[in-house]
Amino acid sequence: MTYLKNTWYVAAWGDEVSREPLGRKLLDQDIVLYRREDGDVVAIGNRCPHRFAPLSMGKLQGDTIECPYHGLRFNGHGACVLNPNGDGDIPPKAKVPAYRVEERHDLVWFWGGDPEQADPALIPDLSYVTDPKTRTVTGHIHVDAAYELYIDNLIDLSHAQFVHNDQLGVDNYEDAQLEVKQADEQVDVIITIPNANMPPAIRGITGEDNKRGNFVLAAHWQIPSIVTNHIQFLDADTNEALHESFGSHLLTPETETTAHYFYGLTRKHRLDDKDVDNAVRAWHLKGFTEQDKPVIEAAARMMGDETDPLAMGPAIIQTDGANVRARRILKKRIKLELEQESQA
Amino acid sequence: MTYLKNTWYVAAWGDEVSREPLGRKLLDQDIVLYRREDGDVVAIGNRCPHRFAPLSMGKLQGDTIECPYHGLRFNGHGACVLNPNGDGDIPPKAKVPAYRVEERHDLVWFWGGDPEQADPALIPDLSYVTDPKTRTVTGHIHVDAAYELYIDNLIDLSHAQFVHNDQLGVDNYEDAQLEVKQADEQVDVIITIPNANMPPAIRGITGEDNKRGNFVLAAHWQIPSIVTNHIQFLDADTNEALHESFGSHLLTPETETTAHYFYGLTRKHRLDDKDVDNAVRAWHLKGFTEQDKPVIEAAARMMGDETDPLAMGPAIIQTDGANVRARRILKKRIKLELEQESQA
Amino acid sequence: MTYLKNTWYVAAWGDEVSREPLGRKLLDQDIVLYRREDGDVVAIGNRCPHRFAPLSMGKLQGDTIECPYHGLRFNGHGACVLNPNGDGDIPPKAKVPAYRVEERHDLVWFWGGDPEQADPALIPDLSYVTDPKTRTVTGHIHVDAAYELYIDNLIDLSHAQFVHNDQLGVDNYEDAQLEVKQADEQVDVIITIPNANMPPAIRGITGEDNKRGNFVLAAHWQIPSIVTNHIQFLDADTNEALHESFGSHLLTPETETTAHYFYGLTRKHRLDDKDVDNAVRAWHLKGFTEQDKPVIEAAARMMGDETDPLAMGPAIIQTDGANVRARRILKKRIKLELEQESQA
Questions:
Q1: What is the separation of C-alpha C318 from the centre of its chain, rounded to a whole number of angstroms?
Q2: What are chain C's partners, defined as 3 or more CB pairs within 8 angstroms?
Q3: What is the pLDDT of residue C236?
Q4: What is the architecture of the domain spanning A128-336?
Q5: Would you call A68 and C314 a contact, using CB atoms and an 8 Å cutoff?
Q6: Among A96, A170, B170, C229, which is disulfide-ready with B196 (CB 3.0 to 4.6 Å)?
Q7: Which residues contact B75 (CB under 8 A, 6 or more apart)?
Q8: How distant is the alpha carbon of residue A299 from its chain centre?
Q9: Averaged over B309-322, what is the pLDDT?
Q10: Distance, CA of C111 to CA of B185 (rounded, Å)
């Protein structure tokens, strides 16, 4: 399995892109991202066609980026618009690829394949991120594991009981009920633990210590590697949400064996409370950098050169239902794309 | 040359294995070691068959080990005995290899090949380690060199005069006499330096500064990579031992190019003296980590992809007699094992 | 493209070689350099032929070097002259290669190929380095880039305006005039910027702030990777040099993808002023380690396995005239050498 090209991937959270060039490898391609003076995001090839220095080490000159090595300038379409040296001639080869990017819901999306096929209507709807009634804390880490291994992690929320036990563990996990649904090219998985104790992370936010209720973890996957989740703790009597949050977990392959992990936690309460922001950041650091990442990267090392667990004859259990379905959909789409490429 | 499989190797010193799981790669296999509640040592495959996380990152639950990722539990036979997720079904593939281990003389030995062939009677006799009249200080380091390069080092004690000159050097090394003996599949080498000054390390222990005597360094190699030595400094007149120690130098291949080095120094004097323990530890750190390891690892780098010096057309000198014999025996056994495998 | 063998390369600045052995990989060969008691430089193979330890970890014994592992001693011709072990026999294989070296103008040169062909008359003339009317500050860094990428950098001084803008930038770079000359197997490139402001680095030395003049940067390349330059700032009216310096930029391949960069700055003023020495060292650190090296190494990474930019279909601009010519000459000579080798 490799990755789908003709689809939208996250290149960055909006606040990562500024008037300082940002070099990032995405789908094995070296890309530089920056904002034009009007604020629009530009994504072009990062490798100068002259002597191959990374443009991201250079600086912006108006809407162009200047190569750090010999000063050639490129515009947002990847065309060289200035050669400051010698006779100043600009040779035809002096150009870099330009990528289709769209900024939406505080995310910079880029189209991984043929720009002609890029359709902004296909960008996943993460409008809750920019809903004025919510507040979202975001982050980005680089991981030494194939992006698919992160999808596996994210749409099998049973890992929360073990990897994040200190934050999300409950004392009656054996009562958990699992539901997996597939519709079109999307997969939903819902774990419900009735009459659970309130997990530590939620106690920290609600301040309620001994309350029991229904703990509901729902994850939604869509092509290519977009996972959103909805975590709720419901009053056992009234079914009223004592707590809920919305997670964005967005993976972009860097290479076949490494990935970018963009995450966000969206809440509907205490929107302006910096203490909550900081608590969420602390949880992200703990949960994603200190808990998920070491386990997933260690599993990736254990897999050696293979990136697809299903190719290794694994033990498959019921809670793998969602990730097995997601991989199947993705593989089918990748196969189709490769067939179309070979026909073209 | 590669390594013999159907033989006993050291997996760990006994005190390295506890109720905290210990992950260790041995003979290219990822293994986790831990103690059951009754103290017996368990060694099973470290790679969870579900999503390939290392079990050594998990924790013990009674006599089982729980995977850190999704909580599957495995017993000392490598069988999955609990799947806490979903319907709880345990698929047939949910198992890991189990290794034959024996704890003897404070060492945990494991059989590298077919468990059916494992015969505890073949475990090398290192009973002096647990003799109540002795005291042994032990250690373990990881080395970036093929295990055979360490055998070469250990059964050619002439290196002591140069690599460990500050500790074991004498002023009349030119008088050294060499004896090499081979019996069955074992090799002995004895270097005797008559009327030598007492080497610095021994002066430090005996407190005798100007005494001369006979310095005798004897090393014994047996299959696969077990070296024991006996260092003596004898009174020139009475031939009484002014000092003696027994060294255990036990190599286990991690991969073809890296190894585990387990070492111990056994003494018969001042058994309860912590100062002597600390002096031995300081000597181990100096001699093994700061002197042998850099030289051997540098030689390994100089050899590039080759792990067998004899394949590189080296200059062979008389003091190589022991290591050439040992390699010849080992190669013959490995060849035989490969032939048996190909016939099976 | 690989490298020429039968030619003189720099092995070290003279003050790098002493009575402490210096291990250095040059043209993929492991070499140890040291001075004999009479001060002459020795360069022999660094890999002991016995057990392959690096001789450079050993110590000098008179004019010989003693292997750190088992004490074999080798003389400046690479012959083993002492085996201190066992019967002391010296086997025929106990020898290492000896390299032709010449010390001239404070540089240790070595011949990369067949010693029989080594002709000291071919050593490039860098006599200005030891001219008593000059003072030279020198240095050496290791770079993770093919040596050719450094030649490209050094004989295209247009990079100074961008990579070293804070030190050598001018405000009318668009007025620069370029001249490239090829004679025999040598290439010269001269950039003249008439009526330029005095660049910051030169202002720092001359103390003249607002003076404008003609800024002339001249570089000279010769086989194999010897670049010297002459930087001048001339009074616009009198054409008198307000400042000039002579740079030595000497590359030696370590491997096909890594190199040694030896540099020196020679001046004719304030010869005994340690403050100027220190200012030059600060400039070297800034310019070569913090500015050139990151850009060139990043470009090398961007090029992946390729070391020749011309093989990658680059955009070629007028200022590449010198480096394209130099590469063409070098390729021709390498091709010729390979043909001669295959005929021999």
A1: 25
A2: A, B
A3: 87
A4: Alpha-Beta Complex (3.90)
A5: no
A6: B170
A7: B63, B64, B81
A8: 20
A9: 94
A10: 49
Tokens 């259990």, residue?
A: A317
CA dist., res. C203 & res. C210, Å (int): 9
Instruction: Pull the structure tokens for residue A43.
Output: 């994504």
Sheet bearing C107-111, strands edge to edge: C8-13, C107-111, C101-104
Q: Which CATH class is domain B127-336?
A: alpha beta
Q: Which CATH superfamily is domain C133-336 in?
A: Naphthalene 1,2-dioxygenase Alpha Subunit; Chain A, domain 1 (3.90.380.10)
Render pLDDT for C145-166 as a digit per residue (tens, 0 to 9). Answer: 999 999 999 998 899 999 999 9
Residue B103, min C-alpha distance to chain C (Å): 35
Tell me if B70 and A159 make a contact (CB, 8 A cut-off).
yes
CB contact under 8 A, C70 and B159: yes
What's the DSSP call for residue A254? S
C-alpha–C-alpha distance, residues B165 and A226, integer Å: 63
A neighbour chains, 3+ CB pairs within 8 Å: B, C
What tokens appear for B162 in the block?
């140069």
B84 closest CB neighbour out of A174, A298, A321: A174
User: Which two tokens mark B324?
Assistant: 């050439």
- What is the DSSP-derived secondary structure letter of residue B294? H
Cβ-based contacts of C157 with chain A (< 8 Å):
none
Closest CA to A69 of B290, C160, C54, C107: C160
Q: What is the DSSP letter of A98?
A: B
Place of tokens 């993976």: A251
Return the domain boundaries, chain B.
8-122, 127-336
Confidence of residue B210 (pLDDT cuts 50, 70, 90): confident
CA distance C260 to C24: 9
Which of the residues B57, B59, B70 would you substitute to probe the A interface, choosing the one with the greatest number of A C-beta atoms within 10 Å? Answer: B70
Q: Residues B135, B128: contact at Cβ < 8 Å? A: no
Return the SS3 of A334: helix
Tokens of B229: 């030595």
- What does CATH list as the number for A8-122? 2.102.10.10
Query: Between B162, B163, B319, which is nearest C86 by CB?
Result: B319
Distinct helix (H) and strand (E) counts, chain B: 7, 17
Answer yes or no: do C80 and B156 touch at CB < 8 A.
no
CB contact under 8 A, A69 and C299: yes
The amino acid present at C209, given as its one-letter code, is D
Calculate how close chain B gets to A170, using CA atoms only, in Å: 13
Look-up of token digits 């063998």: C5
**A314 contact residues in B (CB cutoff 8 A):** 49-52, 93
Q: Estimate to the nearest angstrom the gap between the alpha carbon of A304 and the chain centroid.
A: 24
Report the C-alpha gap between A65 and A61 in whole angstroms: 6
The model's pLDDT over B234-279, given as tens digits with 9 standing for 90+, comes to: 998 898 999 999 999 999 999 999 999 999 999 998 999 999 999 9
Asked whether A291 and A157 are in contact (CB, 8 A), the reply is no
**Cβ pair A319:B49 closer than 8 A:** no
Q: State residue C176 phi and psi, 5-degree precision.
A: -60, 140
When pLDDT is averaged across residues A206-210 and rounded to a whole number, the result is 79
Query: Measuring CA to CA, which residue among B106, B96, B83, B75 is closest to residue B10?
Result: B106
- Calpha distance C158→A71 (Å, rounded): 9
Contact A156 B70 (CB under 8 A): yes
Which residue numbers of A have CB closer than 8 Å to B's CBs?
A: 152, 156, 158-159, 161-163, 173-174, 176, 178, 294-295, 298-299, 302-303, 309, 312-321
Q: What is the pTM of this model?
A: 0.94
Q: Where are the strands (E) in chain B, listed by range?
A: 8-13, 22-26, 29-35, 41-45, 59-61, 64-66, 73-74, 80-82, 101-104, 107-111, 135-143, 177-183, 186-197, 212-222, 226-235, 241-253, 259-267
ipTM surpasses 0.85: yes
